[in-house]
Amino acid sequence: MTLKFNGMLAGVALGALTATSAWSEELVIFWAEWDPANYLQELVNEYEEETGISVTVETTPWSDFQTKAFTEFNARGSAYDMIVGDSQWLGAASEGGHYVDLTGFFAEHNVAEIMAPATVKYYAEYPGNSGTYWAIPAEGDAVGWSYRKDWFEDPAEMAAFKAKYGYDLAPPETWAQLTDIAEFFHRPDEDRYGIAIYTDNSYDAMVMGVENAIFSYGAELGDFETYEVDGFVNSAKAVAALDNYKQLYSYTPPGWAKTFFVENNQAITESLVAMSMNYFAFFPALLNEATNPHAANTGFFSNPAGPDGDKHAALGGQGISVVSYSDNQEASMEFLKWFIKPETQKRWAELGGYTAHAATLESDEFRQATPYNEAFYQTMFTVKDFWAVPEFAELLTAANQRLYPFIVGDEGTAQETLDALAADWKATFKKYGRGQ
Amino acid sequence: MAPDVMTKLDPNSRAAAKGLSDLTIRNLFIIPTIAFLIIFNIFPLLYSLGYSFTDFRASTNAPAKFVGLQNYRALLSDPFIWKNFSITAKYVLISVTGQVIVGFGLAMLLNRTIPAKGLITTLLLLPMMLSMAVVGLFWKLLYDPNFGIINYFLGLGKFEWLADPDMALWAIAIVDIWMWSPFVMLLSLAGLSAVPQHLYEAAEIDRAGSFYTFSRITLPLVAPILMIAIIFRTMEAFKTFDLAYVLSSQPTTELIAIRLYKMAFQEWQTGMSSAFAYIVLIMVVAITNIYVKYLNKVKAR
């Protein structure tokens, strides 16, 4: 008993000690568990060297990220001073009062000018075109493609492809070419498949994949200002795009029914497919010989254009927001001032972070730094995103419920699927009194 | 509690020496439990009942608005929710039936003198000692159409266990059967070893056939304990979340617990999900009650 009591005393003393050090300058940034978070930790270590203020990047797996962040917000917890939150959260987090309004900070430091326009629009501003800002664009990201250069450059394959399709085998410029190439390389008897796409319907994975098609076909999810969806998400262009995505699914490896970034990178490292869709943030692993035996033969291209030449990609990436319940808001603002400095942004890019800083992005140094930076640079000016309203998760659920049975389960037609989705979204917007 | 069922405190005990009465000691034991129950069970239960009649969302600061039975009406008229319920019912049926057949079969096999019986029983119990999420993860690998060992051994080629919408629920139920049959086996074994040997001897003298012996002696005597196993497994199968969540994301495997999780913690529809949780609670209580009634009938026999 005495022993236990002593143990407890020691625990209390330790707790008191940690509490004291937390009170002194120490900042916590919350993010998902992935490579960019490690790069950010390296970056903020330099902040500590400069200022003596220690910054910790705390992470959790992607699958828990949204739940854990909002659980902490809902409890008005001060565990995190800043959060690198997903772009779709802006509505929920700003209307819920969880983020500090950074509009003043934006004006004072000219943030809207120094960051790439698309990143300001999607990572920082809510509601759209309101001039109210909630986050500093931190990690730019979008969906791009990786491919097997050695398969594409094999003379026998090139000749066979030209004979079959009448044009040269090269990284696709259009969705039609993308589909041809996927069909061409799809050879189940050789254990080789055409393409890897997103099909996981548990959060936003599959929806981001379908968005790539919808946006490039020149269709929209809806009018982000009036919340009208009928005639947008179920337009003829959107229907054609969805049909194309479903066709791509037939060229995926067997069992490709719950796939996201891990599986799509594996499709390349395991030599399963010719082309694979993924966020740019996951491409560094594909260039690393240790994680990809085909690193030397892996190439990259940006999302191809649709039939009318529209070229867009689904947006990933996040901005840093200050949490309203943090006890260190002032210190967090100081940190953000340091974070947006050109030299910090340059260092961020060098470490592997995808900077949203316009000048850094445009520099030749950045664009030539890796085989995919040029594709990333081009993509970041053509990105589009999902709804950022507070009820975005309900909209995602409806999209998953409608799209997945059509793409994977072969139920109904694309038109029926998107008509049903438009009706669901309309009902959701009506429920929350938006538009109409 | 009636005072006559309480044992009187020994006047020479240390407790008595400290001046503690019987009542104080009883309260010392009971009050923490009651407090725990009220704080962590009853209070949230009532609180969420209140929420189920509002449009409350935990993710916003907007005050909750009373909406009456609107949440219940919306849920019960949502075709997707009904689909979740029918999927869950199908899953419970397949999984519990499978576990009873396999578990009881194993118990029958083990209910005799065989060498290394203890070791075999222990090994058979291993699956249920594992974590659900871990089981889900490694069965996902076993089922993999490209390198999975199951297709390799069964010679099924590239058969898609989890990607096929019709097969996925069966695939998950098979994992659940693999994991929890040992539980049914363990309880059945306890029941079987309690059947008096003289009944079998009497049956043998009367030259009763093995099927007759099984259906007239073994089954009726093991039935009560088997029913308890079935009640536990039905309740657990009804609430299955981790296994199905890890293994598959097919709409045909979206059990109510998964839908509830998404509604509560991804969409943050707190009011609506409270109502949903109540509907599920009422169903579980109703099913359990039917079982318990039946169990009492079996016991009375």
Any overview of this molecule?
The complex is a heterodimer of chains A (436) and B (301). Chain A is α/β, with parallel strands linked by helices and 436 residues long. Chain A has 21 helices and eleven strands. Chain A folds into two domains: 27-141 and 316-384, Periplasmic binding protein-like II (D-Maltodextrin-Binding Protein, domain 2, 3-Layer(aba) Sandwich), CATH 3.40.190; 143-314 and 391-431, Periplasmic binding protein-like II (D-Maltodextrin-Binding Protein, domain 2, 3-Layer(aba) Sandwich). In chain A, helix 2 crosses helix 16 and helix 20 (392-407) runs antiparallel to helix 21 (414-431). The radius of gyration of chain A is 23 Å and the shape is globular. Chain A starts with a helix and ends in a 5-residue tail after the last helix. Chain B has 301 residues and is mainly α. Chain B folds into two domains: 3-51, no CATH class; 75-300, MetI-like fold. Chain B has 13 helices and no strands. In chain B, helix 4 runs antiparallel to helix 10 (210-238), helix 10 (210-238) packs antiparallel against helix 13 and helix 12 runs antiparallel to helix 13 (270-300). Chain B is globular, with a radius of gyration of 25 Å. Chains A and B meet through helix 3 and helix 20 of A and helix 12 of B.
